[in-house]
């Protein structure tokens, strides 16, 4: 189903919000890595391909992308990336959100950035679900 054509204004707002969250964070790569991880967790093949390609265009190595599913055991991810990936997994599996992870985020990021990272992760979960439910597979 071509959901973007059927409801262009509403879906357009979702994509505009997505762009704004990335802009507000300033480190576009961080949220893009989180979006790819969320898409992997949700099993959205289209989104995984899209975000992997996008990250390659940002200069992220294929080796790093290959290790993303096992990021916890990889030495390739720096502290901020590890923290955002941890938060992405916790927010995606909603029952596992940890106050300790939130406190760590607040050490690295402003409160607005924490909100924008969290909203960006939540939005990616929504976009994955829309694509999986209504998109071409």
Automatic annotation (TrEMBL):
A single MF term (Gene Ontology): peroxiredoxin activity
Coiled-coil region list: none
Limits of the Carboxymuconolactone decarboxylase-like domain: 28-90
Domain of life assignment: Bacteria
UniProtKB keywords: Oxidoreductase, Peroxidase
Keyword Membrane appears in the UniProt entry: no
Keyword Aminoacyl-tRNA synthetase: no
Family matches, as NCBIfam families: ahpD_dom (TIGR00778)
Protein name: AhpD family alkylhydroperoxidase
């Amino acid at each position: 189903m071509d959901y973007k054509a059927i409801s262009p204004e509403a879906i357009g707002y979702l994509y505009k919000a997505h762009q704004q969250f990335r802009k507000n964070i300033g480190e576009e790569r961080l949220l893009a890595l989180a979006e790819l991880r969320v898409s992997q967790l949700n099993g959205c093949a289209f989104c995984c391909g899209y975000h992997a390609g996008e990250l390659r265009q940002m200069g992220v190595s294929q080796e790093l992308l290959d290790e993303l599913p096992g990021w916890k055991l990889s030495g390739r991810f720096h502290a901020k990336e590890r923290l955002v990936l941890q938060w992405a997994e916790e927010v995606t599996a909603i029952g596992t959100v940890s106050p300790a992870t939130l406190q760590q985020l607040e050490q690295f990021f402003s409160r607005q950035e924490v909100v924008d990272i969290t909203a960006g992760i939540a939005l990616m979960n929504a976009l994955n679900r829309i694509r999986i439910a209504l998109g071409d597979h």
